[in-house]
């Protein structure tokens, strides 16, 4: 897995935006990822989870994930968020979106 290009990073942000914690200060990446997962589960939006994995790992379809066990999917999701510096990515795109320098 490689870090996402700008276009795909924007797509990832748009995909998970409503699931990210509002406060990103002093939070570890693993905790941040956990809060995203909790939000996805509580809002019953499991497709966001699989779509994010597909995007971050450059897969072509949901079909490519069907044989993976849940633990491997969780690892893929978390590794993808960490590899793409999700906290910094979210902070940056929130600033851009809100027009804050």
Q: Quaternary status of these chains?
A: single chain
**Which parts are unreliable, with pLDDT below 50 for 5 consecutive residues or more?**
none
Mean pLDDT: 91
Largest sheet: none
**Percent helix among the residues?**
55-70%
Shape: globular
**Whole-number tally of structural domains:** 1
Strand content: under 5%
Span of the ends, CA to CA: 31 Å
Class from helix and strand fractions: mainly alpha
Overview features:
mainly alpha, 101 residues
Could you explain the architecture of this structure?
This protein is mainly alpha-helical. It contains five helices and no strands. The longest helix has 14 residues, at 29-42. It is globular. The mean pLDDT is 91.
Q: Secondary structure elements and their pairing?
A:
Layout: H1 6-16, H2 29-42, H3 46-56, H4 70-83, H5 86-98
Helix pairs in contact: 1-3, 2-4, 3-4
Offer a quick outline of the entry.
This protein has 101 residues and is mainly alpha-helical. It has one domain. The chain has 5 helices and no strands.
